[in-house]
Amino acid sequence: IIDEVHMLTEPAFNALLKTLEEPPAHAVFILATTEPQKVPVTIRSRCQHIPFRRISGKDIAVRLSLVCEKEGIPAEEAALWELARQADGAMRDALSLLEQAIPVGSGAVSLDSVRALLGGGSRSEMEAFVASLRARPECAVSDLMESVRKGTSMERILENLFLIFRDLWILKAWGEAALEGLELSGEERAFLLKEVRFWTLDGLRDCLGSLSRMIGRSRTGMRTDVLAGLLLEGLRPADPPSSPIPKENRMSFRQEQTVSRSETIPGSSPELADPKTEPAGTALSSKEIDAIRSFWIGLLESRDPEDRQIVAAIAPARVLSGQGGVEVVFPLRDRICYELIRLERNLRRFQVLKENALGGIPFTFCCGKEQFCGKENPAAESAPAGEDPNSVPWRLRRGQAEGPGRQGELSENGPEGETPKGHFRSATIDEMLGWFGGEILLVRSDEPEGGIGGCEEGSTGE
What we know:
By secondary structure, this protein is mostly helical. Helices cover 48% and strands 6% of the residues.
């Protein structure tokens, strides 16, 4: 029996090859390895390959329980499951961990002894952390930092948290029947069934995304306390945004990100409050709600070049109908979209489209604790750094946003048809300049004239 045969040197493999070609009748060679691809093909071709698969966590836990029972060692089921999970499919590793856990627990295998052996960050600890993070965040911060100070590996914490949120997401998306495909103990299953009702699918997806990014960062040498801060910031339940509109009168029109735009949102109107108990004229009618739904879907599907920035801004927003108006709510992580819709040209364009389709129905835009009404004065755009606000290129771009009348006013201030020196008159570049206040840094001309390699330097900015 040659264990870890892939570690042999090339001369050793060459010496072994002759024996394998003509083996003695009384001898059988067993070559064991965890990396068969590193064994030369000349060796593999002369052997019968028998692959061994990983052992399931459930089978390992059952085997460890049998060993403890025959040896007369008291053992907790949760502790054995933690050892089985740590073994990652290898029975030999599981038995080695069990042998180490027995003296740590003074002759017994308890969850505390396993935690002391493995250094914290176990599944049960992370389950307690998840429940605490949802119900008592201030206590969860202390628990996490205390675990980190004791030397618990952040990579182990992140991986166990990812598995917990993965299981919660599977349970939330497909129900209890989906848990049959997961390796869970009775206690772990009970925790998932109890905890899942406090989380939304969007919240679980966000947590999984944050954890997947942080697992990669944990392997780059980032400081443990920095990773702990990122973890606390990235894990939070998807609470409904604060709003003056009562929950019973809200109706979300936002399409799920996983639904393609070719699919239509159901056209049925939401149930409205009883007109006998609501003041007349305060709640949106069923007809208005259907019109808002059609307007919003049509705007998201618009291919008009003038609507590009508006579509990009409102894509992550949620639209809620309530008493006397519509509220457009932006997540805090998409604040840039909230600021984009506030730009003068975008808000004016939105108001024109909204009034043509819906008339005077008021829209309120919200992001966190900030909000503004669509009728308020939009945020004025400032000239980019390094460009004179009174220069012709900047005024031309402002004129494009403010309409034909303003462009006429600008043309009167300068010679008609005259192009400022250094201004590259291209419709494509003019449009690019208008996006987020862009600037030309370098223009390459067809004929080499001045500059370096036929390049004419433009304005400089950030």
